[in-house]
Design brief:
The structure holds 2 protein chains of 2 kinds.
Chain A lengths: L2 E7 L7 H4 L8 E2 L2 E2 L2 H10 L3 E6 L1 H9 L1 H6 L3 E6 L8 H7 L7 E6 L2 E3 L3 H10 L4 E7 L21 E5 L6 E6 L11 H6 L4 E3 L2 E9 L1 H9 L6 H12 L10 H7 L12 H8 L6 H9 L20 E6 L4 E3 L3 H10 L14 E2 L4 E2 L4 E2 L4 E2 L4 E3 L2 E2 L4 E2 L4 E3 L2 E2 L4 E2 L4 E3 L2 E2 L4 E2 L4 E3 L2 E2 L4 E2 L4 E3 L2 E2 L2
Parallel strand pairs in A: 1-4, 1-6, 4-5, 8-13, 15-18, 16-19, 17-20, 18-21, 19-22, 20-23, 21-24, 22-25, 23-26, 24-27, 25-28, 26-29, 27-30, 28-31, 29-32
Antiparallel strand pairs in A: 2-3, 6-12, 7-14, 8-12, 9-10, 9-11
Chain B lengths: L3 H18 L6 H19 L6 H22 L5 H9 L12 H7 L5 H21 L27 H13 L40 H12 L5 H17 L9 H19 L4 H15 L7 H34 L4 E6 L3 H12 L4 E7 L6 H11 L3 E5 L3 H4 L5 E5 L2 E2 L5 E4 L2 H10 L4 E4 L28 E2 L2 E2 L17 E4 L6 E4 L2 E3 L4 H11 L1
Parallel strand pairs in B: 1-2, 1-4, 2-3, 4-7, 7-11
Antiparallel strand pairs in B: 5-6, 6-10, 8-9, 11-12
Helix pairs in contact in B: 1-2, 1-3, 1-4, 8-9, 8-10, 9-11, 9-12, 11-12, 12-13, 13-14
Classes of the chains: A alpha/beta, B alpha/beta.
Chain lengths: ~450, ~525
């Protein structure tokens, strides 16, 4: 077997608590499908037959009852439950399932919605025998007004600095702004090997990683690494250029591997070498590389890859859809773009829509909806089993499952969570209505988060 | 009857035919004559073009008499002459005889000899022309000396839709995706595949590849992206991947390893040849492995068989590549003397090895590296040589005639040595050999024996490889002139990979069997085959 897929669906959605305090993030409806359906669909389309899903018990229960998950997903899902409050990072979760990992692993986050050709990332991983291959995308600004936010306040997101080489494929440098207190410093060894580096800040990390099996074993030994994105990836990127990895004394290290020292000192170079490069020393492979007249760089006297055995690659996409749904703005954007990914009819066949309803072509109506006369639904998503009474105007909004909207309401640019009831004649602009909330009739709510 | 060779036949054949239709048995004489006639017919067919038509007529006239004499002797005295004319019509001659001849035959006594001669000549020409026009299969005479017609390999018949259909069917059966050709192909090379590097075969494969072993997928990717390039490197990487396949292989129940493993390897080989056409050295390596696998005795246990195969592969690489390189280096060093100026072309792993070894032996020489676009492999050769401390000069192939007066020897690497002594190597090699010959500079080709191949080729068109045409596009000062070459209807980009050098330009071939002239390659091949 070549690759095993692991879906990380235990995240809490800490940046959109208004939506996730009742519904766990993996089950948030986007385009009337649960959020985790999208990465699962991506894996299924590409040809995976089994996925290990790491999630919480609550999500597992919801998965079992959700019709979309049961019918549409044909792969075998191996669900591993972890504690919700365990404060487990993604790397901790990988360590938890180390026994199940038998080959190289493809880690996907549950909040990734993309239509990227996955073979581009995996080809980098295969062709260059890389230790890490990841996916990034040139981000775009969210232009929609986020409900609940007063005014266009842009949160100062911590930027990521990503350094790539001239071909745009090899990952040379990765750091978050938070870690760079006194400026961005680049080691001389990197500059000597790669004199031309492009540093980009506007990239969105898709949280899709191809990792060698040796990395999972390494994680098992180094228990202090808890997050893949936050700690493991920068560590691997730095390790590409560390002096010890390039030392030719690999044979000696292989002998030392047998001595299991018990110190929990994480970054001990000796053990890292052996763990991260056991299979690299293959005599035939080396012979082939020596005889091959290919080099990945030119201008200096070193061989291909500068003799380095640990390589990290990144595939950056410019076009196409790739968004991570971890903030409210991203959620709204995803709802707008996600339906383009699949060719299902916008209106579910079981929905009952009266003829005198004006429905835009970019709206999605879920199953068992009931839309009455004289309503206008434009650029919106209606969840399953939603009831919309007469003379309602819904524009630019996301309405989840089981919502009841009484007559004469005017809803604009809002997000209304499941099982809410909007009273008669209410006027909502740029609001967020939480689960099961009630809006009084004739209420006027502007830019307000109406939650418990 | 117009054919000279057939004139003997119709007479007796009519007899026989008549006899058969009348239900009488053929006598011994008749059978013997039939056999003799058949042999003669074969011989006469070959001499057909030389024999004049009047000879045929003479024969015909002569034949009529003995036939008519023989007829009453064998059969009840039916009128042979009268029966001849009508039975001449359905003459069961093996060569198609046009029916138009019969009215002429009937008129025969009326016309003069000259007229008949002319008529017969015309008929012969017509028949010859029609035979050549029709692509009927020549009936293979039951003669063991005639060679079997060899089938052309698929990869040089890309413009034949029938062959393409067969290939598509074969790939479908093996569950391997078909790689589509890319871009406009220059008409002279439209019989070859041309692929784009931006459309790898993995696009159409499922990501955790189940049909094809992951090591083979990785290898195919490395081939198509050029990460593993060069004849030796490709063979070694191929054998390494096969080792992994063998390690992960388990014999299914009720199957024999010797037969099943060979069948398992076939789709992998198809996949690799779709990624990049196989080289001659790879072909020989595959033949060797297949032979080793099928030679495994059936009572051998799986573990032992696998171990044996793995050690066979290691042995092959050791012998044919590593030791051969050492032997060739040893012989070549005798040819390099102090003060030599050696010209090399491109990046040949073997030539680089030789030069490094010679440098270790403290011979004082310098190297001129000749390079060519679009591959620019010479830069890699330059790096390797300079790293060792050898003093080098670097030129592009356009300057080769300028630099040749300085050169004392030319060392070339080879991709394959063909059975007629031609050297197949990177495109540009034959140019270098030609110019060197013009300047009377000795050309030495270094090649291991496992690259010798039984193919025969005299030009670079018939069998070659077309690389991605987009490699020719280059950006200088921010401008890419050829960016939209596909939109210009009269423009085609050609990126050839190999060319063949005739043996007249090569002075010596240095192999692990010694230093041989180019024309001794078929001898080596023959000896190799006898050994195996």
């Amino acid at each position: 077997m070549e690759l095993q897929a692991v879906l990380m669906a235990a995240g809490g959605g800490s940046r959109m608590t208004d939506l996730t305090y009742n519904t766990p993030k993996p089950m948030l409806p986007v385009g009337n499908k649960p959020l985790m359906w999208y990465p699962l669909n991506l894996l299924e389309r590409v040809g995976f037959e089994e996925v290990i899903v790491i999630t919480t018990k609550e999500v597992q229960k919801m998965m079992a009852t959700d019709p979309k998950m049961k019918i549409d997903v044909k792969m075998k899902l191996d669900v591993v439950c972890i504690q919700e409050d365990g404060d487990m990072g993604t790397a901790d979760a990988l360590r938890h399932i180390q026994q199940k990992i038998k080959t190289d692993v493809l880690v996907v986050s549950c909040d990734l919605i993309t239509d990227v050709a996955l073979h581009e990332v995996v080809d980098l991983f295969r062709a260059h025998n890389a230790t890490l291959a990841m996916l990034m995308s040139n981000a775009h600004e969210f232009t929609e007004t986020v409900p609940g936010q007063k005014g266009k306040k842009k949160t100062a997101e911590q930027r990521d600095f990503v350094g790539v080489d001239q071909s745009g494929k090899r990952l040379l440098f990765m750091a978050n702004e938070a870690d760079l207190e006194d400026g961005l410093s680049i080691r001389k060894s990197i500059m000597r090997k790669h004199p031309r580096m492009h540093i980009k800040t506007g990239l969105v990390d898709a949280h899709l990683y191809c990792l060698k099996k040796a990395v999972v074993d390494f994680l098992a030994d180094n228990k202090s690494i808890s997050s893949i994105r936050g700690e493991l990836v920068p560590y691997l990127v730095r390790k590409q250029f560390s002096k010890t990895t390039n030392s030719p004394k690999i044979k000696d290290d292989a002998e030392n591997q047998n001595q299991k020292t018990n110190d929990n000192f994480t970054y001990s170079n000796q053990r890292d070498n052996t763990i991260l490069q056991p299979q690299q020393y293959e005599p035939l492979l080396q012979l082939a590389q020596e005889r091959s007249c290919w080099n990945d760089h030119r201008g200096d006297m070193s061989e291909a890859y500068h003799g380095g055995k640990l390589r990290c690659y990144v595939h950056i996409i410019d076009q196409g859809l790739c968004c991570r749904v971890n903030t409210l703005a991203a959620y709204i954007e995803a709802n707008r773009l996600a339906p383009k990914l699949f060719e299902e009819p916008a209106v579910h066949p079981s929905a009952v829509i009266s003829e005198r309803c004006q429905m835009g072509s970019d709206s999605i109506i879920g199953a068992l909806c009931q839309v009455a006369d004289k309503t206008s639904i434009k650029r919106s998503t209606l969840g399953n089993s939603t009831t919309v009474k007469e003379k309602v105007k819904v524009t630019n909004s996301i309405i989840m499952h089981g919502v009841t909207i009484e007559e004469g309401c005017n809803i604009q640019g809002s997000v209304i969570c499941s099982n809410a009831v909007i009273g008669r004649g209410a006027d909502l602009k740029y609001c967020l209505v939480g689960n099961g909330q009630r809006i009084e009739p004739e209420g006027e709510v502007h830019s307000h988060k109406h939650t418990k | 009857m117009a054919d000279s060779g057939v004139t003997d036949e119709p007479g007796t054949k009519d007899d026989v035919h008549r006899a058969k239709t009348e239900g009488k048995e053929l006598s011994k004489e008749e059978k013997q004559r039939l056999r003799k006639e058949k042999k003669q017919q074969k011989k006469n067919k070959e001499k057909k073009d030389e024999k004049a038509s009047h000879e045929s007529e003479k024969k015909k006239n002569k034949e009529e008499k003995p036939v008519s004499a023989a007829a009453p002797a064998s059969q009840p005295p039916t009128q042979p002459s009268t029966q001849k004319a009508p039975s001449a019509v359905p003459a069961p001659a093996p060569v198609p005889v046009p029916v138009s001849e019969t009215p002429a035959l009937a008129d025969k006594p009326a016309k003069t000899k000259a007229d008949l001669k002319a008529e017969r000549r015309a008929r012969q020409e017509a028949e010859r022309a029609s035979k050549q026009a029709a692509t009927s299969k020549p009936k293979a005479p039951p003669n063991e000396l005639q060679p079997v017609v060899k089938r052309l390999p698929e990869h040089v018949q890309v413009d034949n839709p029938g062959v393409l259909k067969k290939l598509a069917k074969k790939l479908e059966r093996q569950q391997i995706p078909l790689r589509l050709d890319y871009g406009y192909k220059v008409s002279l090379f439209s019989h070859l595949h041309q692929y784009s590097r931006k459309a790898p075969l993995t696009q159409q494969l499922s990501i955790p590849s189940t049909v094809i072993h992951p090591a083979i997928v990785r290898l195919g990717l490395q081939y198509s992206q050029g990460i593993v390039a060069g004849s030796n490197a490709r063979s070694v990487a191929l054998l390494h991947a096969f080792k992994q396949v063998i390690r992960d292989y388990t014999t299914p129940p009720n199957e024999e390893l010797s037969r099943d493993l060979v069948n398992k390897l076939k789709p992998y080989i198809s996949f690799l040849s779709q990624c990049r056409p196989l080289s001659a050295s790879m072909g020989n390596a595959i033949k060797y492995i297949k032979k080793e696998i099928s030679n495994i005795p059936s009572q051998c246990k799986e573990e032992e068989a696998k171990r044996k195969l793995l050690s066979c592969i290691d042995c092959y690489i050791d012998e044919k590549i590593i030791l051969a390189a050492k032997a060739i280096a040893k012989s070549s060093i005798e040819k390099i003397s102090n003060g030599d100026v050696i010209l090399v072309y491109g990046c040949s792993s073997l030539v680089n090895h030789i030069l490094c070894e010679a440098f270790e032996k403290n011979i004082k020489f310098r190297v001129i590296v000749v390079d060519s676009r679009p591959r620019l492999e010479g830069r890699e050769a330059l790096r390797r040589l300079v790293q060792r401390g050898i003093s080098c000069t670097y030129v592009l192939i356009s300057a080769v005639s300028y630099i040749l007066p300085e050169v004392s020897k030319v060392f070339l690497g080879a991709h394959a040595l063909l059975a007629n002594g031609y050297v197949m190597s990177r495109v540009g090699t034959s140019q270098i050999a030609l110019v060197a010959k013009a300047f009377n500079v000795p050309v030495l080709v270094c090649c291991e024996t496992y690259k010798f191949c039984e193919r025969v080729q005299t030009d670079s068109f018939v069998s070659n490889e077309l690389d991605d045409p987009d490699d020719l596009i280059v950006t200088r000062k921010g401008k890419t002139q050829l960016e939209h070459w596909q939109d210009v209807p009269s423009l085609g980009l050609l990126n050839l990979v190999y060319d063949v050098t005739p043996p007249d330009f090569v002075d010596l071939v240095i192999t692990d069997l010694g230093m041989i002239p180019c024309t001794s390659v078929p001898v080596v091949l023959r000896v190799k085959n006898v050994d195996q």
